[in-house]
Amino acid sequence: MTFHAAVFIATSLDGYIARPDGSIDWLTERGEQAGDTGYDEFMASIDTVVMGRNTFEKVLTFGFWPYEGKHVEVLSTTLDPDADERVIVHRTVDGLVETLADRGAQRIYADGGAVIQTFLRAGLLNELTITTAPVLIGSGLPLFGALDNDVTLVHNATRTLKAGFVQSDYTVVR
């Protein structure tokens, strides 16, 4: 594999990335209180964003396109390949990886629960940055799902942000 894949995501303290309906109001209502999370610096180092259909559809509700100048790949078995000229839709992980390799992608931002879980199971992730919001939402879409094997992580750092947010960085051991 020629690229480096990273996750930069927020969860509730109980490990959810969204409510059952996909809402992230619990984060958007509090997120700015955390101060500088390093997201802008992270995004400046990324050349490609990979997300699933649900994350793509959530991004479309933002009212602006946050990925100008980035290649955006959507991993989905159901999204119309012509849904949006700003993205390339892939049906399989193998097809996605082939495209990334052919294009010479360097740093990949893997975003969205299903994509993160798929990348973990396929051994494609290199690092995780997880920002934990000081809220329990009780149910929703978990960041991590079932795995075939343990995924060993090396803890690199944990930072206390403002308003009770905590951010931890991990390297995935292969």
TrEMBL record:
Top-rank taxon, per record: Bacteria
Gene3D superfamilies, alphabetized: Dihydrofolate Reductase, subunit A
Annotated ranges, domain Bacterial bifunctional deaminase-reductase C-terminal: 7-162
Source organism of the structure: Kribbella yunnanensis
Membrane spanning residue stretches: none
InterPro entries, per the entry: DHFR-like_dom_sf, RibDG_C, Riboflavin_Biosynth_HTPR
Record's protein name: Dihydrofolate reductase family protein
